[in-house]
């Protein structure tokens, strides 16, 4: 995860450097930067009208270029970046979708229940034609969509009862605007009553109602009172301009940031005394002044701070974000980081996408789970001070020059998604190249594996895990009887071989305990037979993968108390082994230990050293696979059921596909509940 985070930060750094390169190229070719001011006198009439439409100022009654130019100057300074964005937006001519409402519930859910947006709905009465024709309606939709105003059409034929209850007996236009200045307040519906059904007149009606929500100041005394007043709003933005009403983008933002930022319009058209404006630091008009508890910030002096809806929306979101804004940002970052797995993972193409899907699901699930307690904590009243300090940190950090560069780059790359995706793909291919070069020396098989080989290995693993999951050989308590009988019963159902045997990995063999068979007072190593030494060397070569820690753990275990045969017990009459002990299944002695099977006989001082055996293993002296006695120094291996065999014999038995004990048929990969030795009572006396 940290590697992906580093790669993502490196990608953001690459985007930042690339944006500066683009600025240098534009400056070299044209001789100006995006923050350079443009003189409206040098612009054509078409470009001036485009700027006014993007800012949301009506120009239908201004036929002269001089009047249009003065209106542009009154609304704010014009930069090269804003002019370029406005011209590109006009050339794009993308079709904007409009909602068709199916009934009352659909209308209520989208329009009346939406508290932070403006809706323009055309109502078509029964057996009536629409108030605005199709061509003019498409122009209207495209014009108002620049300012975040959503549009829709409600046909009364789909729900005539609701239209009658509302009084919509003729075709009309309905505008939905939040009624109060609080977040999630009530919504009021206004009906268009104008006589002229033209796009410009309808747009003026929309902007007039939207501007009525903004507090307007007409004199210096009112400004002084408002400037020194302290209320619920921590952030206020003032527009000082010589206009009849604020631009449409300013009014639309006041609806979008309801309850977070207060928008105030200061009309200085008829002011004679502007001394108080100089006292608060406003020396020219128009000016966009942001007032926060930390001080005053003049909007428009840094990179990317254009007089447009998109630029100011990005600026205010960074200063006063909602929880939903932070969640969307974290969602984008997490998914960008998860997609890095497509390039970091090496091997088959299908493997890359499988890992990618798994990473996407994991990261998004963890993100949602981690956000749930955060949302709960934010509802606590004791965290108000923490919330205020967090917003203060946001305001300090996002009013810097570096933050303005980041916002400008965000707007640039979001308006050019093809460039963003291509740079991300190029960055990923570079990561893939270096990862492949780094791993080629370590694991060439993984890098060069094709899709078929990887799918085959995945299927083998899946079927093996599905049919016979490998149980852990770590010690943990068992309290259920289901571990004894059902698995053993299912194993025995596999005989005779009428069922298809599933594939079982043999990795568990390395975890089986291994030790050497020793006799007390036995022969030294140089006196062992040659065949015994050869078998011992072969056994050592086959068990090099066994960890030394497991072997040492087996040797350091406490030995069990061995109860030897009494004088009255019968001896095994068969030929003794090299350490004078033998397995005699036909003549077991009556007093044998509970953890041993078979009997043994001793001659002289040679008997097996049971202290070297793991405590959970049964005591025996013969391998039932090869029917040979254990020789001094030979390697033994035990199964989870407790039976012991020659290491070579049982490995060949298990590797041949018979994954069960030769004696009791217990599964060789299934841990069995360890047997507890019965301890003799203190008051029991020997018989």
From TrEMBL:
GO terms for molecular function: ubiquitin-protein transferase activity; zinc ion binding. PROSITE patterns: ZF_RING_2. The keyword DNA damage does not apply. The keyword Manganese does not apply. Residues 525-571 are annotated as: Disordered. Pfam families: zf-RING_2. This is E3 ubiquitin-protein ligase RNF103 isoform X1. GO terms for biological process: ERAD pathway; protein ubiquitination. The chain crosses the membrane at residues 326-344, 353-378. It comes from the Eukaryota. Keywords: Membrane, Metal-binding, Transmembrane, Transmembrane helix, Zinc, Zinc-finger. Residues 527-540 have a biased composition (Acidic residues). Residues 623-665 form the RING-type domain. Residues 541-552 have a biased composition (Basic and acidic residues). SMART domains: RING. InterPro entries: RNF103, Znf_RING, Znf_RING/FYVE/PHD.
């Amino acid at each position: 995860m940290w590697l992906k985070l580093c790669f993502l930060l490196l990608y953001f750094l690459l985007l930042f450097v690339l944006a500066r390169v683009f600025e240098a190229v534009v400056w070299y070719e044209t001789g100006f930067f995006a923050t350079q001011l443009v003189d409206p006198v040098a612009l054509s009439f078409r470009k001036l009208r485009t700027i006014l439409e993007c800012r949301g100022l009506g120009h239908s009654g201004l036929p002269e270029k001089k009047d249009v130019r003065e209106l542009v100057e009154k609304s704010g300074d014009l930069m090269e970046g804003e002019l370029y964005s406005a011209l590109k937006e006009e050339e794009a001519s993308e079709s904007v979708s409009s909602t068709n409402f199916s009934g009352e519930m659909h209308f209520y859910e989208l329009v009346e229940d939406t508290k932070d947006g403006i809706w323009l709905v055309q109502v078509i009465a029964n057996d009536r034609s629409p108030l605005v024709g199709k061509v003019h309606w498409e122009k209207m939709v495209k014009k108002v969509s620049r300012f975040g105003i959503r549009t829709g059409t409600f046909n009364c034929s789909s729900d005539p009862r609701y239209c009658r209850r509302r009084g919509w007996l003729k075709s009309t236009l309905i505008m939905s605007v939040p009624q109060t200045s609080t977040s999630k307040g009530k919504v009021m519906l206004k009906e268009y009553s104008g006589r002229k059904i033209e796009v410009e007149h309808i747009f003026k009606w929309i902007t007039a109602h939207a501007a009525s929500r903004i507090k307007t100041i007409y004199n210096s005394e009112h400004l002084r009172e408002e400037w020194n007043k302290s209320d619920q709003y921590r952030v206020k933005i003032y527009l000082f301009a010589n206009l009849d009403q604020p631009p449409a983008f300013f009014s639309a933002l006041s609806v979008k940031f309801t309850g977070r930022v207060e928008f105030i319009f200061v009309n200085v058209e008829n002011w004679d005394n502007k001394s108080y404006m100089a006292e608060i630091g406003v020396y020219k008009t128009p000016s966009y002044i942001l007032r926060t508890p930390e001080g005053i910030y003049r909007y428009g002096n840094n990179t990317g701070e254009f007089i447009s809806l998109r630029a100011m929306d990005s600026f205010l979101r960074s200063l006063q974000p909602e929880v939903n804004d932070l969640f969307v940002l974290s969602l984008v970052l997490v998914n960008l980081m998860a997609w890095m797995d497509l390039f970091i993972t090496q091997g088959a193409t299908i493997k890359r996408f499988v890992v990618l899907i798994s990473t996407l699901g994991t990261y998004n699930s963890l993100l949602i789970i981690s956000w749930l307690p955060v949302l709960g904590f934010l509802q606590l009243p004791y965290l108000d001070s923490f919330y205020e300090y967090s917003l203060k940190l946001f305001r300090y950090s996002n009013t810097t020059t570096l933050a303005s560069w980041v916002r400008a780059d965000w707007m640039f790359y979001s308006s050019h998604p093809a460039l963003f995706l291509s740079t991300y793909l190029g960055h990923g291919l570079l990561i893939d190249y270096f990862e492949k070069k780094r791993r080629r020396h370590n694991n060439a098989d993984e890098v060069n594996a094709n899709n078929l080989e990887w799918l085959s290995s995945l299927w083998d693993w899946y079927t093996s895990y599905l049919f016979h999951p490998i149980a852990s050989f770590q010690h943990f308590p068992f309290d259920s009887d289901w571990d004894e009988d059902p698995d053993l019963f299912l194993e025995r159902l596999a005989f005779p071989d009428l069922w298809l045997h599933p594939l079982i990995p043999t990795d568990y063999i390395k975890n089986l305990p291994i030790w050497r068979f020793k006799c007390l007072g036995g022969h030294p190593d140089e006196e062992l037979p040659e065949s015994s030494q050869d078998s011992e060397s072969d056994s050592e070569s086959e068990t090099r993968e066994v960890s030394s820690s497991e072997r040492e753990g087996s040797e350091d275990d406490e030995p069990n108390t061995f109860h030897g045969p009494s004088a009255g017990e019968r001896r095994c009459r068969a030929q003794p082994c090299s350490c004078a002990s033998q397995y005699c299944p036909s003549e077991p002695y009556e007093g044998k230990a509970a953890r041993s099977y078979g009997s043994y006989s001793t001659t002289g001082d040679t008997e097996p050293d049971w202290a070297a055996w793991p405590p959970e293993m049964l005591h025996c002296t013969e391998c039932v696979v090869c029917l040979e006695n254990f020789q001094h120094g030979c390697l033994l291996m035990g199964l989870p059921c407790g039976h012991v065999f020659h290491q070579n014999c049982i490995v060949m038995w298990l590797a041949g596909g018979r994954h069960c004990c030769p004696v009791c048929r217990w599964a060789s990969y299934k841990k069995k509940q360890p047997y507890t030795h019965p301890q003799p009572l203190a008051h029991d006396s020997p018989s």
